[in-house]
Amino acid sequence: MFLTKSLAQFGRYCIFLRRVFSLPDRWAAFGRNTVSEVVKLGVDSVPLAMIISVFIGAVITIQMQLNVTSPLIPAYSVGLATREIVLLEFSNSILCLILAGKVGSNIASEIGTMRVTEQIDALEIMGINSANYLVLPKIVAFVLFMPVLVSFSIGTSFVGGWFVAAFTDLIPVSRYVYGLQAMFTEWYVWYGLIKSLVFAFIIASTASFFGYYVKGGALQVGKASTDGVVMSSIFILLTDVILTKLLLQ
Question: Where are the beta strands (DSSP E) in 87-189?
Answer without folding.
Answer: none
